Amino acid sequence: MVKHLPYRYRDYSRIAAEASLAARDQGKFREMHLLLLDRSPKLDRESLVGCAKELNLDVPRFTKDLDTMRHQAEIDRDLKLGEALDLYNTPTIFINGVKLLGDRPFEAYKTIIDRELKAAGPGGKNR
Amino acid sequence: MSRCAFPAVLLCALLAGAVLVPSPSAAAPPVSPTALAPLPPPPSPPENPTTPEKVTLGKKLFFDRRLSGDGTMNCATCHDPESGFADALPISLSYPTTRNWRNSPGLVNVAYRKTLFHDGRATSLEEQALFPMMSPFEMNRNLDYLEEVLKTVPAYVEAFQAVFGGEITRQRVAMAIAAFERTLLSRDTPLDRHLRGEPGALSSRQRAGLDLFLGKAGCATCHNGPNLTDERFHNLGVPEDAKGNEDPRVLATARFVGKVSGFPEYRALREDPGRFLVTKDPVDWKTFATPPLREVAATSPYMHNGALGTLQGVIDFYDRGGGDDPKKSPVLRPLGLSTEEKESLREFLATGLSGRMPDSRPPAVP
Amino acid sequence: MRTNACRLALWIALALLAAVPAGADDVRYVVPAGDSPSIGPANAPVTIVEFVDYQ
């Protein structure tokens, strides 16, 4: 589950978050999310429209969403939640509620996920 | 200085009544049990005595994000109570757009340290506290500006007046934080209870681990005294992260530190020279401070750059005789530990040295 | 900020975090799911919530 915490001193954080939600509206959140992480930091408006083209989105609709900041309220809500949880650093990841701050090597996450899967028991094996 | 091959006289000054005669050609001989001792009550220096009000103020500051340039970080960001007062990362968190180059040391029992930082460049908590605030790759806060910001907060103006009898200064900010840090204690580990004479404080496995710690594994050669550190600096040959060191942000940090340390060849720095940057003595090249070991289980990964992720990894590292640096400490040599011995030692380190972590829930910051 | 693309393969979402029992002695946070976008089956046993900044 992805929540947005755009850093207020970065040019493209906000607009990239808008892009991901605009893509979500067109059913391609996962693809856009991965694309944005891949293309970062090249996330200026033109690049984002390029991403939408790549994913075969309805580009005029996408561009309008970006320019009107259609999902501002949703992003602000995520920001507020972040503040309520006293989060300021990204990425911050919660795995079944266990908080991990900052960029970590893959193994660090895997260890906790494996542990949680184990604790969930046989009934919970549903990946 | 790193040579444990120095005359015993130096070591005797550090160890209460212990006798250690090091020799480069022999394995580390067993250290007298009196080389370890329970921790005394924490110091309260006369120039900055610890009082409850000062500690309360210091705790608020420790968790206050105003201490960072962009308001996103505070001391607890890298010294997180939920992560052993470190941050569970090989290389510590850093200010946005920058990279740090060293592991965040845990703050449990920091009250007892004679020097702070992996390179020992500060000799008091008061001196240490301002460094990360000023550091552009850590909290990146201009201290002149910080003083003015804090003065706009009535609760702080009032508290500093009550605690220090005067206005807010950077020195007083550091003093308050230092007083709070002196309350982060762990003194009742199974080892401590054992050293105070409590029978059965250590399980038989932990006891076996302690015997190895003092004997065959040679840990107490450097991890001795009440705080399990000789307060010296040693080169263990810890491997560098060559790939990580290619990151231009890491290089910028390394060279910046070299520059402000007054090292003429700072532009050529490609690795961490450790204590050398402080003393400029070639004998200190790549030596780093011996850390204390209480609550060590909570502060992985280990070493100045977090190169060793687990206690098992650390034990294996020492069992091999340390790393590959030709200049590493002559005290290090392969130990020949059996699997069972390694397990006893690991058990002692993980549980024999773990007591009660200091509680530190975030306070209400004004 | 950059994140390792490899670990994205792990995205699993649950509708309600509160449904998962607490395990070991970690501190556990309850993060309200809301209608944030998610990837993966809704009834997965492990929920990962990421607060992300793409830049």
Kindly estimate the percentage of residues of chain C that lie in beta strands according to DSSP. 5-15%
> Looking at the structure, what is the overall shape of chain A?
globular
- The termini of chain C sit apart by 5 Å
* Helix amount of chain C: under 10%
Low-confidence stretches of chain C: 1-24
How would you describe this structure to a colleague?
The complex is a heterotrimer of chains A (127), B (366) and C (55). Chain A has 127 residues and is mostly helical. Chain A has helices spanning 13-25, 29-39, 45-54, 59-67, 72-84, 106-120, and strands spanning 2-4, 92-95, 98-101. Chain A folds into two domains: 13-84, no CATH class; 92-124, no CATH class. The mean pLDDT of chain A is 88. Chain B is globular, with a radius of gyration of 21 Å. Chain B has a domain at 52-181: Cytochrome c-like domain (Cytochrome Bc1 Complex, Chain D, domain 2, Orthogonal Bundle), CATH 1.10.760.10. In chain B, helix 2 packs across helix 7 (170-181) and helix 4 packs across helix 7. Chain B has helices spanning 8-14, 52-62, 75-78, 125-134, 143-151, 154-164, 170-181, 190-195, 204-214, 248-260, 276-279, 311-319, 339-352; strands spanning 233-234, 288-289. In chain B, strands 1-2 form a two-stranded antiparallel ribbon. Chain C is largely without helices or strands and 55 residues long. Residues 1-24 of chain C have low confidence and may be disordered. Chains in contact: A-B, A-C. Strand 2 of chain A pairs antiparallel with strand 1 (48-52) of chain C.
